[in-house]
Design goal:
The longest helix is centred in the first third of the chain and has 16 residues. The strands form two sheets. A seven-stranded parallel β-sheet has the order 3-2-1-4-5-6-7, with helices on both faces. A five-stranded parallel β-sheet has the order 10-9-8-11-12, sandwiched between helices. It is an alpha/beta fold and 415 residues long. The chain contains 16 helices and twelve strands.
Length: 415
C-alpha cells in the first residue's frame, strides 16, 4: 500500500511516526510523511519520503510561542495559543499543499491534532487511522480526567465538564475546517479521531486504558525509534568515565526563551546536591560557560542511549521522554510546563518510579535538589524502576501497529 503519515507538533509527536514509517517500509509498504517543514531533515536523514506543508517556522518563532504559552495558567488557553500560533498558522497554505500532495494514497495514519492534515485526507476520499499518543483525554467511567483520580459515579460528570471547557477551541477548529470546504470533523477535547480505527501509541503500563474503551481503538504500545548507529562523542564518554551515572536533564521542546533562567536554577540545584549532570540543550538552548566541571552540556543524543547512563532523569513529562526514562529503568523527576505533561508526571509518581512532580511555576533550586536527591538515591525507587524496565521494553508497539494497519486495510478491501 501507499500510506500517508500526517503529524504535527514537537519532537515527541514526530519521532513515533518516524519509527512507524521505518516499520511500514520494512513490511513492504510505501510511506510518505506530511508535516511542517521544521522536521523535514530528520525524516530525510532516515530515508523517509517527506512532503513539507505550510510555512517555514524558525526556532526563534517556536520559542516565542512557547514563552507566550508559559505566561498563562489555563491549559485551555495554552491550547488556544498552540492552535492559532502553530497548528493553524497559514492554515490555507498548509491545507492546500497537503491536499495537492496526498492524492493517490491508499490509506492515511494521522496524529489526532493534525486537523488540517486530516481534513486534506477526508476531502481526498482517503480512509484514515487516527493516532493518540496519550489516552489522557479519552473518557472512561473508571476514572475522572487526569489529576482528579477516581471520583466514582462523578467520573462521567467530570468528563462532561472537561468537554465543555475545551469546546471553544474545538468549535474554533471546526469553523476553520468548514471555511476550507470541510465536513466538520467531530473534534472534542482537542482530539480528532477516525470513525473506523484509532491507535493508542502509548505504554499501557504508564498510560493505562480501561475496559470501556470503544471498539474502534487498538492499544499498540509506544512506537520507539531505534538508533543503533549512534556513536557517542569522545567528550561525552570521557565525562561519563569521570562521572559515572550522572543526573540526566532534558526539557525537550520546553522552556521557550527562558533558557538562561532555567539553566541558572538547574546549576544551583546541582550545586546543592553535589551531583554531576548531563544537560541536553533542547529548544531553550540550556547552556552556561560558568558551569562546574561536573556538568556537561550536549545537543541531541538519543534518549535510548543517554538515559541508560544516568541515575535519574529530570524532564518535562512529555510522552516520549517519559517512556524513554521508563525503558532505561531509571527514576524520573518531572517538571511539567503545559497541557498533558502533568498526566505523565502523576502516572510516574503513581508507579513509584518518580519523585513528586514540581510544576514549572513552582520550580526553584531547593525543591528541585530535594527531588533529584530522592530519585537518584532512594533504593526502593531505583529498584522499582529496574523491576518495571523489562515490562516497558516489551511494550514497544510499532510492529503491532503495522499488523493492525494491515488488518484494517483487509477489512477495507485495500489488501
Amino acid at each position: 500500500m501507499k500510506i500517508a503519515l500526517c503529524t504535527v507538533g514537537s519532537t515527541g509527536d514526530i519521532q513515533p511516526f518516524l519509527a512507524l514509517a521505518l516499520k511500514l517500509n520494512a513490511a513492504g509498504h510505501s510511506t510518505k510523511v506530511f508535516s511542517h517543514p521544521f522536521h523535514k531533515d530528520r525524516f530525510l536523514s532516515h530515508g523517509i519520503e517527506y512532503a513539507s506543508c505550510g510555512p517555514e517556522v524558525t526556532q526563534a518563532e517556536l520559542n516565542d510561542m512557547l514563552s507566550r504559552m508559559l505566561e498563562v495558567i489555563s491549559p485551555v488557553k495554552q491550547l488556544e495559543l498552540l492552535l492559532k500560533g502553530a497548528f493553524f498558522k497559514e492554515k490555507g497554505k498548509y491545507f492546500r499543499e497537503c491536499k495537492e500532495q496526498i492524492q493517490g494514497f491508499d490509506l492515511a495514519i494521522c496524529h489526532m491534532a493534525d486537523f488540517l492534515g486530516q481534513e486534506a485526507v477526508i476531502q481526498s476520499g482517503i480512509p484514515r487511522i487516527g493516532v493518540v499518543l496519550a489516552p489522557a483525554g479519552i473518557p472512561t467511567k473508571y476514572s475522572a480526567p487526569p489529576l482528579l483520580g477516581n471520583l466514582g459515579f462523578l467520573n462521567s460528570f467530570a468528563w462532561k465538564i472537561i468537554t465543555w471547557m475545551t469546546r471553544k477551541n474545538d468549535r474554533f477548529a471546526m469553523r476553520v475546517l468548514r471555511s476550507l470546504g470541510g465536513t466538520g470533523q467531530n473534534i472534542q477535547r482537542f482530539h480528532s479521531l477516525a470513525p473506523g480505527r484509532n491507535f493508542i501509541a502509548a505504554s499501557p503500563t504508564l498510560a493505562p486504558t480501561y475496559p470501556d474503551l470503544q471498539d474502534h481503538f487498538r492499544v499498540t504500545g509506544p512506537w520507539i525509534l531505534p538508533e543503533p548507529d549512534y556513536k557517542p562523542t569522545p567528550e561525552i564518554l570521557a565525562f561519563l568515565d569521570k562521572h559515572p551515572r550522572p543526573v540526566i536533564i532534558n526539557f525537550g521542546s520546553m522552556g521557550g526563551n527562558l533558557g538562561p533562567q532555567l539553566t541558572h536554577t538547574l546549576l544551583e540545584s546541582l550545586h546543592i546536591t553535589g551531583k554531576a549532570a548531563i544537560i541536553q540543550t533542547g529548544y531553550a538552548r540550556l547552556s552556561s560557560k560558568k558551569a562546574h566541571e561536573n556538568v556537561f552540556f550536549t545537543d541531541y543524543v538519543p534518549h535510548e542511549w543517554l538515559f541508560n547512563q544516568g541515575s535519574c532523569v529530570v524532564h518535562h513529562g512529555g510522552a516520549g521522554t517519559s517512556t524513554a526514562a521508563c525503558r532505561a529503568g531509571v527514576p524520573s523527576v518531572v517538571v511539567p510546563f503545559i497541557v498533558d505533561q502533568p498526566y505523565f508526571g502523576a502516572n510516574l509518581y503513581r508507579l513509584g518510579i518518580a519523585s513528586k512532580m514540581i510544576w514549572y511555576r513552582r520550580l526553584n533550586a531547593k525543591r528541585l535538589a530535594k527531588r533529584i536527591w530522592i530519585a537518584s538515591e532512594d533504593p526502593e525507587m531505583q529498584a522499582r524502576s529496574k523491576e518495571l524496565q523489562p515490562i516497558f521494553l516489551a511494550e514497544e508497539g510499532s510492529e503491532k501497529a503495522v499488523e493492525y494497519t494491515e488488518q484494517y486495510a483487509r477489512e477495507l478491501g485495500l489488501l
